[in-house]
């Protein structure tokens, strides 16, 4: 649909209809002021016309309405008392209209410039997200999958939450994680881990070897410049899983990340790790031994992986989002349908705006 008269704002037809309001106001005020008794002056009310125009028009529309208001003020002065045209009071009213109109035009120009910059920022962030964090494919071998990323800031569509999938000769490997911190540093750390995962996940290495490789990659990147052997305070929580193509159990290593949930016939089961590993990036400090957990994943089940932006979302009373409780009884078997309902439920719970980025992956093992 085409935009407003000046390229932004309401559609063209609506802007053209709305511009009749300030013009009608100028006409009404001018007629009443000319016909009113000499001691009544309504000319100052003309300033309302250009004042309301920025709500639906751009700088050209505002300038036009302001010029009409100045002309109307001049005509009022001529018709009511030609001798008063050059009086100090009348000149002050005209000058006030000119200043208000000029200020509003400048405001509209700045607003349009900011709108263009915001559009460019959104385009760049969306492009970066598609490159760094593309949506998961709908099919991962025999598995069906769907992914969702909700940014806390509308202008920044990507942050420190991450997820990825990789196919092996015998199954599918998944990772979901959350970088400590925000901003471009978090995005850089997320991109580094995703790159390392995509390179190494295809290899015929054990899950423990894969996580050890990811930890070393993160440790090397997080090392403070010029301080060999010294590591910064950044780290990445993550859960790494290996889902076989057959009916075998899922293998998992949890690195300080929120536990997955398996939804079986509407009943959620939280998969807690008895022996969690430290977050990625702290391995050099703790010398961890990666304990591989396993759990069943039956045909028809949904496997949910998420970041703490989901479980730490709060409602108006400050209560955390109770994920397992909220999804109990949900019957959606399609990952896309499940995430669609989840997105609506989460945003409704928090009042429409998250305080932190949130990501979720839903994987289903279809019934044969």
Question: In short, what is this structure?
Answer:
With 368 residues, the protein is α+β, with helices and mostly antiparallel strands. The protein has eleven helices and eleven strands. Helix 2 runs parallel beside helix 4, helix 4 runs antiparallel to helix 5 and helix 6 packs antiparallel against helix 7.
Commentary on this structure:
There is one protein chain. The protein is α+β, with helices and mostly antiparallel strands and 368 residues long. 43% of the residues lie in helices and 17% in strands. It contains eleven helices and eleven strands. It has helices at 12-18, 20-35, 48-52, 59-80, 88-132, 183-200, 207-222, 283-286, 308-311, 323-327, 335-350; strands spanning 139-140, 143-150, 161-167, 171-179, 236-244, 250-255, 261-264, 267-270, 293-295, 302-306, 358-364. Strands 1-2-11-10-7-8 form a six-stranded antiparallel sheet. β3 (161-167) and β4 (171-179) form a beta hairpin. α2 packs parallel to α4. The longest helix has 45 residues, at 88-132. The model is unreliable at 1-8 and 226-232 (pLDDT under 50).
């Amino acid at each position: 649909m085409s935009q407003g008269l000046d390229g932004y704002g309401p559609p063209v037809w609506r802007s053209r209809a709305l511009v009749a309001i300030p013009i009608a106001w100028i006409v009404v005020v001018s007629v009443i002021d000319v016909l009113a008794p000499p001691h009544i002056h309504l000319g100052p009310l003309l300033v309302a016309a250009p004042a309301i125009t920025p709500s639906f028009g751009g700088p050209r529309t505002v300038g036009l309405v302001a010029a009409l208001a100045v002309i109307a003020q001049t005509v009022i002065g001529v018709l009511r008392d030609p001798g008063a045209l050059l009086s100090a009071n009348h000149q002050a009213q005209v000058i006030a209209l000119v200043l208000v109109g000029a200020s509003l035009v400048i405001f509209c120009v700045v607003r349009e410039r900011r709108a263009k910059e915001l559009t460019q920022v959104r385009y760049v962030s969306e492009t970066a997200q598609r490159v760094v964090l593309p949506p998961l494919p709908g099919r991962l071998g025999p598995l069906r999958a769907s992914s969702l990323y909700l940014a806390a800031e509308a202008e920044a569509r990507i942050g420190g939450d991450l997820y990825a999938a990789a196919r092996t000769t015998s199954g599918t490997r998944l990772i979901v994680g959350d970088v400590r911190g925000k901003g471009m540093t978090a995005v850089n750390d997320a991109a580094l881990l995703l790159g390392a995962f995509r390179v190494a996940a295809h290899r015929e290495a054990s899950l423990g070897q894969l996580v050890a490789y990811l930890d070393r990659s993160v440790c090397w990147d997080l090392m403070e410049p010029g301080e060999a052997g010294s590591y910064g305070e950044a780290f990445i929580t993550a859960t790494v899983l290996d889902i076989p193509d057959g009916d075998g159990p899922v293998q998992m290593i949890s690195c300080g990340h929120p536990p997955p949930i398996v939804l079986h016939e509407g009943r959620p089961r939280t998969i807690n790790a008895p022996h969690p590993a430290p977050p990625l990036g702290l391995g050099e400090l703790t010398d961890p031994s990666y304990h591989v957990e396993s759990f069943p994943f039956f045909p028809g089940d949904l496997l949910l992986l998420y970041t703490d932006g989901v479980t730490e979302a709060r409602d108006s009373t400050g209560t955390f989002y109770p994920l397992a409780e909220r999804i109990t009884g949900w019957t959606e078997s399609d990952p896309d349908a499940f995430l669609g309902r989840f997105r609506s439920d989460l945003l409704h719970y928090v009042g429409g705006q998250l305080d932190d980025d949130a990501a979720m992956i839903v994987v289903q093992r279809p019934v044969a």
